[in-house]
């Protein structure tokens, strides 16, 4: 892009072009693109896999698909969360075939009953007596144990990374949040790790995960499809996404008491939320698959699980203080607002998906100025994936 040099003050900075091309349609439908994304993105970056509270008890486990790999996240007897590839080291059977569960002591393969401790160590193999290898030496129970996967806990979620050398969590995950909010302490104020799931809705969306990312990043569509949201956040009706400006939170309308479907009062604001954060909504994208929405009294946390080029599961948690959840107070008015937003957004994405393979969209469409920041996502993606033809 042409820029004005400081040594040439006579020339005005050229305005960015009003229309910027998008990715072509194949990026949303081609299985080879999706395979490249699995390999280059989901299997290399930090992937937000589970709410840690879903795996609270020793022996509890959760199975999660990360790219092409099945990953098992297990709480040990020492209370530690660990992640492993969900594959038996004997002859490769899938170890856990249920999505969630709890074992009393060990994990046992349903095929020939090799048994692993909750820390992944091999503890027994039937008819193998003292577990010897071909030379008669004792088997290394760690080397023949489950293959570990890197795991970090942050914001009350377990993030896993399949890369041999995981990228910096501080840079890639925490840094994305700081970059958006402009202050590393801003997210801490919400104490998201202390909150509990008041409601979870799982959406099965017939759309490519990138259509969902792009939709989340812009608000050009807000006036058209989000009547309830624009009522609560009037500036969204102008089409400018809160994500464009560092530290900018969209302000509640003057007559709005809370972030609820009818603008009625919500709950007490979260204890650490500052006056500057009160009555404001902040939206954050953490690549590749997480969106976080911050409002004064709760958090709306989306995690995407891309299944195929044209299907994405989105798990959305509404998080409240322990007191609100324990009291059994009715959260439905605050849930209903973003649930409607989700349904409106996902319907738009699903409506767009089938036409991505049309000949008219081979070269893609255009981004208007209110969407120009999406071009940066496309650039990032093309750099990571390369040109897939
Ligand atoms: Fe698991 Fe044989 S494949 S015990
Ligand atoms: Fe939307």
TrEMBL record:
Gene3D superfamilies: Naphthalene 1,2-dioxygenase Alpha Subunit, Chain A, domain 1, Rieske [2Fe-2S] iron-sulphur domain. Signal peptide: none annotated. Residues 46-160 form the Rieske domain. InterPro entries: Rieske_2Fe-2S, Rieske_2Fe-2S_sf, Ring_hydroxy_dOase_asu_C_dom, Rng_hydr_dOase-A. Its cofactor is Fe cation. Keywords: 2Fe-2S, Iron, Iron-sulfur, Metal-binding, Oxidoreductase. GO terms for molecular function: 2 iron, 2 sulfur cluster binding; iron ion binding; monooxygenase activity; oxidoreductase activity, acting on paired donors, with incorporation or reduction of molecular oxygen. It comes from the Bacteria. This is (2Fe-2S) ferredoxin. The lineage of its organism: Bacteria, Bacillati, Actinomycetota, Actinomycetes, Mycobacteriales.
């Amino acid at each position: 892009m042409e820029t004005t040099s400081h040594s040439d003050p006579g020339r005005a900075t050229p305005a960015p072009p009003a229309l910027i091309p998008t990715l072509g349609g194949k990026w949303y439908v081609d299985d080879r693109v999706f395979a490249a994304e699995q390999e280059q993105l989901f299997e290399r970056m930090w992937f937000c896999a589970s709410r840690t509270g879903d795996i609270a008890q020793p022996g509890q486990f959760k199975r999660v698909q990360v790219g092409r790999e099945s990953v098992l996240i297990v709480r040990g007897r020492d209370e530690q969360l660990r992640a492993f590839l969900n594959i038996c080291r004997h002859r490769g059977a899938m170890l856990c075939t249920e999505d969630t569960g709890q074992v009393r002591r060990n994990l046992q393969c349903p095929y020939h009953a090799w048994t692993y401790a909750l820390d992944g160590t091999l503890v027994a193999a039937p008819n193998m007596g003292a577990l010897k290898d071909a030379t008669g030496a004792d088997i290394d129970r760690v080397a023949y144990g489950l293959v570990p996967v890197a795991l970090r806990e942050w914001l009350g979620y377990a993030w896993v990374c399949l890369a041999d050398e995981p990228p910096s969590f501080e840079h890639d995950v925490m840094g994305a949040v700081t970059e958006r909010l402009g202050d590393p302490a801003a997210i801490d104020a919400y104490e998201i790790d202390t909150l509990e799931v008041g409601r979870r809705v799982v959406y099965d969306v017939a759309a490519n995960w990138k259509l969902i990312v792009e939709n989340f990043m812009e608000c050009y569509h807000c006036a058209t499809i989000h009547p309830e949201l624009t009522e609560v956040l009037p500036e969204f009706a102008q089409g400018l996404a809160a994500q464009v400006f560092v530290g900018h939170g969209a302000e509640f309308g003057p007559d709005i008491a809370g972030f609820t479907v009818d603008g009625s009062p919500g709950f007490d604001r979260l204890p650490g939320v500052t006056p500057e954060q009160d009555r404001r909504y902040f939206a954050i994208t953490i690549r590749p698959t997480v969106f976080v929405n911050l409002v004064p009294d709760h958090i709306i946390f989306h995690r995407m699980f891309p299944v195929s080029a044209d299907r994405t599961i989105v798990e959305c948690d509404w998080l409240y203080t322990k007191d609100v959840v324990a009291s059994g107070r009715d959260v439905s008015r605050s849930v209903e607002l973003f649930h409607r937003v989700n349904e409106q957004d996902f319907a738009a994405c699903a409506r767009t998906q089938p036409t991505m393979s049309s000949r008219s969209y081979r070269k893609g469409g255009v981004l208007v100025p209110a969407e120009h920041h999406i071009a940066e996502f496309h650039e990032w993606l093309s750099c990571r994936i390369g040109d897939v033809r």
